Amino acid sequence: MGVYPFMFGSIEDFQPVVDELVAKNMKEPYDWDAYASTFFPHAQKLATRAQDAESKREKEKAAELYLRASALYRIARFPAPRSEKQRYAWQKGKEAAEAGLALHDPPTRSLNVPHTHATASDQPVLPIYYHLPASATSSKPAPTVIILTGLDGYRTDLAVWIPSWSALGVAVVIAEIPGTGDNPADPSDPKGADRVWDSLFAWMDQQSEIHKNKVAVWGFSTGGYYAIRMAHTHRERVCGVVSQGGGCHHMFDPEWLDASNGGEYPFDLGHTLAFKYGYRDFEKFKREARGRFSLVEDGTLDQECARLLLVNGDEDSIFPVDDMYVAVQRGEPKELRIVKGRSHMGEPEAFFIILKWLFARLGVEGDAGRFMSGVPTKTKY
Questions:
Q1: 3 state DSSP class of 199
Q2: pLDDT of 248-281, one tens digit each?
Q3: Hey, which end of the chain has fewer CB within 10 Å, N or C?
Q4: 380 near 64, Cβ under 8 Å?
Q5: Catalytic positions, written as ranges
Q6: What is the pTM of this model?
């Protein structure tokens, strides 16, 4: 479909699931295991078809079917894998996505980056997706985009951007943010992400096919919060950073967290954010979040920073657009674009604004319209 969060998916795959959810009268508060289980038979059918196609060496068909299966598993674990069956969906979704992405030419690899800067509260590896374009060599290293995923969209999902970047000769690294997917950081430690990025850049330094002076970062939604932070904490490692739809301060206001549960987000946003930041008590999260995670409160925004572009829609009800203004009013000058009449992330206009900016930072010649047309939106099989 190409519409977030159904990337790689097909309406025909989701319709029978929706019909079953409606028949079961499934409503909030969800039984997350029952919710997730509804998707499994349909996802498995697609995975079985993919395996059959792969056995017949029908690579294009197999890749599509694996990725369609991963889309069903994705929504099964949405918005966060909080129950046993949702955690199972996350594992199966990875298996399907990685099987499909490995069949692309060139393939996308799933790698475990050693978390060399880990503390006792962190896990030992950072799983990433790593894609090198066919043109990348040690003698001709590729510019690289690091994609920081969001609250609910993980590396299996944002891999949808890889084909278009690859066509421009740009390498792609996709990593989840703390408290989501497989990120190894202690989610309740505000500096946990800094250690993970230290380990990631240490690993990237060892990759001869990556151009070290042409590394840009694109943070999506909650990943935009970490992008803003990285633009300050790792400013010497990147040539440009984009925060699309990210917050930095008021996103943690208790009043905003309460109100956000009734906004455009289709699930319980406040509680999902609390879960992501390592809290199981929503009221405690509301009391502590701003003092603990605000980039104003901890002085991050007063530091020097890399080139930083902030983009969002002026009608965002997930993260307050006010945070964009907070960011530009502190520290070094930053670039800001607010898209009038658009909600969270400022789509679709935001993509064209961001791509043009990233092309310039990376030194690549690209057409944003052509780039967007290369993002998978239709199924063939």
A1: helix
A2: 999 999 999 999 888 889 888 999 999 999 999 9
A3: C
A4: yes
A5: 221, 316, 344
A6: 0.97
